[in-house]
Specification:
By secondary structure, the chain is of the alpha/beta class. It has 13 helices and 13 strands. 45% of the residues are buried.
Length: 383
């Protein structure tokens, strides 16, 4: 067998890739598994989005290579979307880069700005891909604590004490996954000032800003935000288009141009029909989000009942597509707990530990499950 690259020694297969194989094997063996682990929206996109895709298939250029920067109409739609919902003005020609999902953006950003030996600030708990991509880029992850005792906000005394000479970028993710912590404007303002003083690039990963939030917000709307920050966004969660793989990167033109150098060497453009569907999605009016959130509120209420029956406590002020729940002090560790529930009740829940050491003692439920299925899960716990 050929020897693999040394960089693979620094990463493991993604948790859900491994765990969903196990869940799939249980389903094949006849076990009726309820999957509450992964945030893949089960609700269909708006019919206009599907229709736009279907119509686009007949376009004479539909099956040809597409622009590395996306259709001009898509960039215009993103600019209008950011102006209408986030009050952020963006130049569609230079400050917007469509992506095939925001996950690829994490890799593009890392390759554009990290050299071997650089350091990256990563939230703990946080999205595991920030760490794995940093390691693949041969940079060193530096974890900053987010804890319940500090409302899952960065501890600025600890940030001030850091030696930041080798730190190039800092990953943010508000509204936060997995905890569901809403955006705190004061936190954004303090981070912008802190990063500007140290010449650190902030990246806010912002796919949950429309899910159960009072008002969608962007770090780019804050004074000085565009000078030190870029933002990832996605159509996966707010428009039920996870499988379409449509994301976007927004920020200053020179930063976007540096990332385009990487992206243009990694893909050959996004399929025309998907871009047309994305344009239709971005034109959705506020009642689209209100309708989705009405569904998610009902599901959240049921998940909170389910969590309480497991002895776990939740925060009613949290937002986003997941419910973060704290296990009782006498419970086994999170991974043992969820394995026990999977084995005995055939319910798959995510352990908080996959998001970092500060996730110990917590579990995460997805809201991408119909009400009737959540009620079935409650009945299984009661049985």
């Amino acid at each position: 067998m050929k020897t693999t690259a040394k960089r693979l020694e620094s990463v493991q297969e993604y948790y859900f890739s491994r765990k969903l194989r196990e869940v799939g094997q249980m389903i094949q063996a006849g076990h009726p598994i309820i999957n509450m682990g992964i945030g893949s929206p089960d609700i269909a996109p708006h019919p206009n989005v599907v229709l736009a895709l279907q119509k686009a298939l007949e376009h004479p250029k539909a099956h040809m290579y597409q622009s590395y920067q996306g259709l001009p109409e898509l960039r215009e739609a993103i600019a209008t979307f950011y102006r209408n919902y986030y009050q952020v003005s963006l130049n569609p020609d230079s400050e917007i880069l469509p992506l095939m999902g925001s996950k690829e953006g994490i890799m593009h950003i890392s390759l554009a700005f990290l050299n071997p030996g650089d350091e990256v600030l990563i939230p703990n708990p946080g999205y595991p891909t920030y760490e794995s991509v940093s390691r693949l880029a041969e940079a060193s992850p530096i974890f900053y604590d987010l804890k319940e005792t500090n409302q899952w906000q960065p501890e600025f005394e600890a940030l001030e004490a850091l030696d930041t000479r080798r730190i190039k970028i800092m990953w943010l993710n508000y509204p936060h996954m997995p905890t569901g912590t809403p955006i705190n404007i004061e936190t954004f303002d303090r981070l912008i000032a802190w990063a500007k003083e140290r010449e650190i690039l902030l990246i806010n990963d912002n796919p949950y800003s429309f899910v159960l939030t009072e008002k969608p917000q962007s770090i780019l709307s804050r004074p000085g935000g565009k000078d030190v920050a870029i933002e990832l966004n996605s159509l996966s969660k707010s428009f039920n288009m996870a499988g379409w793989r449509v994301g976007m990167l927004t920020g200053k033109g020179d930063t976007i141009q540096a990332i385009l150098k990487v992206k243009s060497n990694m893909d050959s453009g996004m399929f025309y029909g998907i871009q047309q569907g994305a344009i239709a999605a971005l034109k959705m009016t506020p009642d689209w989000f209100e309708g989705l959130n009405a569904i998610y509120r009902k599901r959240r209420n049921l998940v909170e009942i389910l969590a309480s029956k497991l002895g776990a406590t939740t925060d009613p002020s949290s937002v986003g597509l997941f419910v973060w729940a704290k296990l009782p002090s006498n419970a086994p560790n999170a991974e043992e707990f969820i394995d026990q529930i999977l084995k005995e009740k055939h319910i798959f829940i995510t352990p908080g530990t996959i998001f970092g050491s500060n996730g110990a003692g917590y579990i995460r439920f997805s809201l991408c499950v119909p009400e009737a299925t959540i009620e079935e899960a409650i009945n299984r716990i009661d049985a």
